[in-house]
Amino acid sequence: MTTSPLSARVAAIPESPTLAVTAKAKALRAAGEPVIGFGAGEPDFPTPAHVVEAAQAAAADPANHRYTPAAGLPELREAIAAKAMVDAPGLEASAAMVTVSNGGKHALFSLFLALLDPGDEVIIPAPYWVSYPEMVTFAQGVPVAVGTDVASGFRASVDQLEAARTPRTKALVFVSPSNPTGAVYPPEEVAAIGRWAAEHGIWVITDEIYQQLVYGDAVFSSLPVMAPEAAERTVVINGVAKSYAMTGWRVGWSIAPSALAKGLAVLQSQSTSNVANVSQRAALAALTGPQDAVAEMREAFDRRRRTAVRMLQAIDGVQVAEPEGAFYVFPDVSGVLGRTIAGTLVESTLQLADVLLDVAKVAVVPGEAFGAPGSLRLSYALGDADLEEGLARLGDALAG
Ligand code: PLP
């Protein structure tokens, strides 16, 4: 009998379902299948040319062939703090508060390890980004999901958060604009949530990675600015991946009160050390250089967002809350469950996602991955023609 070499902690982690769907779609495409992928959470644009040029120059400079401090290049930490204060006027940030990590994902992973003791509870509004509960569990914390739905615009209320609070509540994960729903909390709701957290001494992890991607009348509001009383227990997460089409460069960061930031730097000094210098230099160029590409991408995403909502709304049995940020739409398709599609009785969105890939050659992520069965997540960060073709195929398949 072979026993697994895996520790119980690692054996308990499921593979990221979003990455799994993306990988399956890519493999099918490589095998010649005309798959259209709505799975990936990444812009379809290339990284802006001036950023790539800065990286090329950085690679040629021997100064970048060495370690930097574990928390990041001092110039980059300065630039991150400065840009954060420009993007969220009123925010208090300094280089000492910044820890540069291998993407926002790693920043969050380090943060949960640094912040949580065994049994500490973390409130996470659902539908949630797949990695939060897994990271909390890995750090021996306890994720506590608070459900939201289409009817509430996928926004958690203070009353709901209060109902989930216990003496063990250590932190709240707050994400606006949200992955997977695209929900953006209005300023007064952000302020109320921040005040509630401050009143109860709860840490807020505010994931602002989609800060630049807000559409229509919606505005981005940074929680520690809306509720300054929460700032001393707030950590801002951000990165270059989504705003600058730099998912592959792996640069993200946290901005944390300095005592916590010091702990994060120690943790990284014993684990990953610094993020690759060339990537750090690229991130520096992205933050300090021209910002036109951000606006251009936002415009394209907004156009695709409107197409996606229009086409999904036209499908019988599908309910859509209009996403106001990020690049995802999260239709409730529970009205479709129970139908027979291409000879298969479809009873869950897990099953529906499989059937859609087989029958319509369309890759979507089932809501189960986000703690919200009955819905699907579609990323609209793909070309306009593919978007329309994919949604038409999806509509045809659901029509039976
Ligand atoms: N936070 C949210 C809400 C995300 O959707 C993602 C990526 O999908 C991340 C953080 C992490 O991004 P990265 O690690 O690429 O910087």
Description:
The chain has 400 residues and is of the alpha/beta class. The protein has 2 domains: 8-46 and 293-398, Alpha-Beta Complex (Aspartate Aminotransferase, domain 1); 66-288, Aspartate Aminotransferase, domain 2. It is 41% helix and 14% strand. It has helices at residues 8-11, 17-30, 49-60, 74-87, 103-115, 131-138, 158-164, 187-199, 223-226, 258-269, 277-288, 292-313, 349-360, 384-399; strands at 36-37, 98-101, 121-126, 142-147, 169-175, 203-207, 234-239, 252-255, 328-329, 340-341, 344-345, 362-363, 365-366, 376-379. The strands form 4 sheets. Strands 2-8-7-6-5-3-4 form a 7-stranded mixed β-sheet, sandwiched between helices. A 3-stranded antiparallel β-sheet has the order 9-14-13. The chain has a two-stranded parallel ribbon with strand order 1-12. β3, α6 and β4 (142-147) form a beta-alpha-beta unit. The N and C termini lie far apart (47 Å). The structure holds pyridoxal-5'-phosphate (PLP). Pyridoxal-5'-phosphate (PLP) is lined by residues 41, 103-105, 129, 175, 179, 207, 209, 239, 241, 247, 252. Pyridoxal-5'-phosphate binds at residues 41, 103-105, 129, 175, 179, 207, 209, 239, 241, 247, 252.
